[in-house]
Write a structure and sequence with these properties.
magnesium, Dis3_CSD2, cytoplasm, hydrolase, alpha+beta, about 25% helix, 4 helices, OB fold (Dihydrolipoamide Acetyltransferase, E2P), five-stranded mixed barrel
């Protein structure tokens, strides 16, 4: 392997000191070259089959391979579970290239959460007057759900689910957060409400208080 050895000399170094350091560096380089040459000859003569573990650099000096310069790499081989809901809150806008065929079919959805990619959404999902008056929806929050992301595309593909309302208001912002995290915030069904005490006001019985830890 190519080896670069740097030496920093101070202006006050004597000529003899510089010569001594230069000789030391020269000896180190010669030693490394001889070691590499001998190993190459040995491999050529004996015909030893090298494995992947043997492909690494055979350098005994740890100074030549600092740990902070070693980048570990990995590869995703399988998705066990899709944790994200694939839903995101954001804004829609027209594509920049008005002459493209994609401009006639899709709009761009920009999520508020920048960890989520931008999404192509069909114009059919957008409001009817979005193309003629896009500025009217510049501050309107929408919910988009990602349905696909092709390997050769920089943007995902999705569908607009609903319009939440103006950005900055409490109700639209809250609904968007709950939808992104997959929280069901719909009204309770009559079956669930029937499980609640019907005789109001309801109080905790002394028997329940005796066997429970009071966290009120």
């Amino acid at each position: 392997p190519d080896v670069i050895i740097e030496a920093q000399f101070d202006e006050n170094d004597t000529e003899h000191g510089q010569d001594h350091l230069h000789d030391m560096l020269t000896d180190d380089i010669k030693k490394l070259s001889l070691d590499a040459g001998e190993k190459g000859k040995a491999a050529g003569v004996t015909g030893v089959h090298r494995t992947k573990q043997d492909d690494g650099p055979k350098v005994n000096d740890p100074r030549l391979l600092p740990d902070e310069f070693l980048q570990r790499t990995a590869k995703v081989v399988y998705i066990l579970e899709k944790k994200h809901s694939r839903a995101a809150t954001g804004f829609i806008k027209l594509l920049a290239d008005r002459n493209s065929e994609l401009f006639k079919r899709c709009a761009m959805f920009s999520p508020v959460d920048h960890r989520v990619p931008r999404v192509y959404v069909p114009l059919a999902d957008c409001p009817a007057d979005f193309v003629t008056k896009p500025e009217a929806y510049a501050q309107m929050l929408f919910i988009c759900r990602i349905v696909d992301w092709k390997e050769d595309s920089n943007f995902a593909s999705g569908q607009l689910c609903k319009s939440l309302g103006q950005a900055g208001e409490i109700e639209p912002e809250s609904e968007g957060i709950l939808t992104e995290y997959g929280v069901d915030f719909s009204d309770f069904s009559p079956e669930v409400l029937e499980c609640l005490p019907q005789n109001l006001p309801w109080v905790i019985s002394p028997g329940e208080l005796a066997k429970r830890r009071d966290l009120r």
